[in-house]
Design goal:
Blueprint lengths: L24 H14 L3 E2 H7 L6 H20 L9 E2 L8 H5 L2 H4 L9 H19 L2
Parallel strand pairs: 1-2
Helix pairs in contact: 1-3, 1-6
Length: 136
């Protein structure tokens, strides 16, 4: 697995038009699928940059609602979750909202939300997404 993309890396899709629609499920999904195919996690700040925004907590919370919608739509058609690819730059782990959203518990994980054990769990889920989207 590669290092998570950050806002400092610049847009992964520089030719794509930048819009301000944080709630644009199709656009967010496309960015995450591109990250999955590249075998890379993406930071919250880089995802927001891809959407034409600087990182702020309110914008991060708004994009998290969109991530929920992306994963709900994917689950309906048997796709692995993509929200797990969106991580904090500080430790490469999803934020608290992802953990309390129930994904970890539904997948049988009851460990800590930080540290090596959490990172192993998250990387396993990320690898599922990488493998799925590389095969498509």
């Amino acid at each position: 697995m590669g290092k998570a993309r950050t806002a400092m890396d610049g847009p992964a899709h520089p030719a794509s038009p930048v819009d301000s629609a944080i709630g644009n499920v199709a656009r967010v999904r496309a960015i995450l699928i591109a990250s999955a195919r590249a075998g890379e996690a993406i930071s919250y700040s880089h995802l927001l940059a891809e959407l034409g925004h600087r990182f702020t907590r309110p914008k991060m919370r708004a994009v998290c609602k969109t991530l929920d919608a992306v994963d709900a739509a994917g689950a309906e058609v048997g796709e692995p979750e993509l929200a797990v690819l969106v991580v904090r730059e500080s430790d490469g782990l999803p934020g608290q909202g992802w953990w309390v959203g129930g994904v970890a518990i539904r997948r049988g994980y009851e460990g800590p939300w930080i540290g090596a054990e959490a990172l192993r769990f998250v990387r396993g889920l990320q690898e599922e997404a990488f493998d799925w989207w590389r095969a498509k």
